[in-house]
Structures are given as structure tokens and as C-alpha cells.
UniProtKB/TrEMBL annotation:
Segments forming domain Ig-like: 42-136, 144-229, 239-330
Native source species: Chironomus riparius
Keyword flag Acyltransferase: no
GO cellular component terms listed in the entry, alphabetical order: neuron projection; plasma membrane
Tagged with keyword Repeat: yes
PROSITE patterns from the UniProt entry: IG_LIKE
SUPFAM superfamilies referenced in this protein's UniProt entry, alphabetically: Immunoglobulin
Protein origin, superkingdom: Eukaryota
Source taxonomy: Eukaryota, Metazoa, Ecdysozoa, Arthropoda, Hexapoda
Pfam family for this entry, one: Ig_3
Assigned keywords, A-Z: Cell membrane, Disulfide bond, Glycoprotein, Immunoglobulin domain, Membrane, Repeat, Signal
The name this protein goes by in its record: Ig-like domain-containing protein
Amino acid sequence: MIFAFILIISNCCVVINSSIQSNEAAEHPNETNSYIQDRDIPKFGEPIQNQTIAVGREAVFSCVVDNLQTYKIAWLKVDTQTILSIQTHIITKNHRMTVSHVENRAWVLRIRDVKESDKGWYMCQINTDPMKNQVGYLNVVVPPDILDYPTSTDMVVREGSNVTLKCAARGSPQPNITWRREGGESIAISGQREVVTFNGSILNISRVNRLHMGAYLCIASNGIPPTVSKRVMLIVHFPPMLMIQNQLVGSAIGQKIMLECQSEAYPKSINYWMKNETIITKGKRFEPVETENAYKVIMKLTINSVGQNDFGAYKCVSKNSLGDTDGTIKLYHHRHQSESISSTEVQKMKENEIASSTSRLSSQTLAALIYSLLCYCCLQIYLH
């Protein structure tokens, strides 16, 4: 009987207390709802920070929640509507993702070895009613990479042709393409205009010539290291051409002399010297030497101790698969003040001098005899 009475009193107290709270809620509804919301409903402690991560690195999103109570936290990928995790349990089959609970407030989502496909919005969600969420964006940047196709490979063209060099690259953000020559030479573009660098994926060269031959670098950059480049070799074919600075060369007997021709040709030419339709080979007296620089060749022929038979026309010849050409240098006898005279020449000079002296002596004697004869004749006439 006593227990039943106590229970009735307790129920009455509960009803009265509930009635009081109801009346207070009716008199101050905003304050009461705010109090209940602050006390009973979870809330986010801070916003999720957006991330910009290079491919291959790790992305970290932190979702800070206060007063979670018995509610649950889930991570989702917004664009694919994929549930990634509930609490610390990973739902997705992506082994690169983990979720950890830090300091009883933060739910940290980690994505290792980030890929381009990971780019997008990530949502942290609380299963309240209505549901509460916040999002953060993952921007994945990718360093440039030059594509094998349609990027140009090494090219071989005939002189006078039109040439197009192409370069294609991918990356995020989209890379910028710059062309320059490996040796720093200028690039000939439209008309007579020349530039050191050219911006654009396609480089056009009109009426290419031998001066355009060489290595061109396609450089791709988007602000994400490293910058990459590809080397494209432009090879220009043309027949040989000869240049001779001195076509007439004088030499004294016994002097050492050098003849020189300059040849330009590509493919590489065969070069040699000739005299009297005979090819000159290396020996004690003749030393043919070639110096190469790209498509240019300097041909030098050294003649040691020039003799009388060495004077005449020398021909330098250059040949390749596209044609051939030759040039002539004439070596003539030029007596130098210091030139030595052989003993034979000295003997001849003496003989000539004696003969000349005898000739002068004979003339003087004959004149004296004629003069004496005239005097004798005049004396005889006078006596008679």
C-alpha cells in the first residue's frame, strides 16, 4: 500500500515537471530549441580545407565534429556518389584510403599515392535528421609529359622544302609548349622573321635551307616540376658546293705551300685532290687534310718543298649521293728574294757572263783595227 502511494506521488511529480517544461517552452520557444540543439545535436567544429596535391603525393582531409554522441560519421566522393567510409571502417575497395579518429573530434581521411581520378569534391556527413554535411575539394596537379604521338620525330628533308614540327603534351593544368634551338640559334618563322623562342605546339618553317639544320627542343611546362623536353633533329639534304678563297697561289722553288677549299654538303661528301687527272694521295711531299664541322668541310693540301714539276692546276673535288662539284687552284712560280739558286744555274750564269765579256772584247778590237786602217789610208793619200 505504501509502495503504491509513493509511485503515484512520483508520477505526479513527473507530470508536473513536464507541464512546467512545456509551459516554459511555450513561453520561450526559440531559447528552448536553441538550448536543445546546442545540447543534443552534433555540429562541425571547423570547415574542411581544400587541397591541391601533386599526383603521387598524399592528400589529407580533416572533418572536425563536436558533440557527436551516438551519431555516425561517413565520408563520400560527391561526383560518383560513392560511400568511402563509416566511422573508421573503409567501405570502398580503394586500398589507398584510410580514416582515423583523432583526439575524439577529428575524422581524418587520407588518400595515399594520389591519382588524377581522385580529383573532385569529398563530403563529410553526419547521419542526423536532417542530415548535416560539409565538403572539401581535391585538386590533383600533374607535371607535364610529352606524348610520343603526334610529337614529331627526327626529320630528313630536301633543301627548299616546307617543314612542320609538332609537339603534344599532357598534364594538369594543360602545359604550355615552347620551341628553341639546342645551340641557341634563331628560329626562322613566317617571312623573314626570326625569333630565339617560339610559343605554340606547331612550328612551321618555309623553304628550309642548310642553316635551319640542327636540333630543335620542344619544351613543356605548366608550373608543376619538372619541366620536360624532347629533342627533334632536322636534317637537310643538299648537293655539294665549293668555295675557294684564293684561286691563284704563287710559290718559290723549295717553299712549303698550302692550298685550301671549303665544301658544304649533306649527306657527308667524299672529298679529294687531283692534279693532271690523277688523285693525290698522302706521302712525303703531299699532305691532304680534312676538318669537319657539321655539313662543312675544310680541305687543305700541303706541298712540302715545291719543285718545278709541282706548278700547275690543282683540283679539289666533292661528291655525295645528290651530286658532285669541283674547283681549281693554280699554283705558279713566284721567285722570292731569298730563293736559293742551284749550282747548275750558277754555272750557266758564269758562262753567259764570259760569253758576254768575250763578245764585248771582240767588238772593241775590231773597231780599233778599222780605225788604224783608215788612218793609214789617209796618210798615203797625203804623201802622194
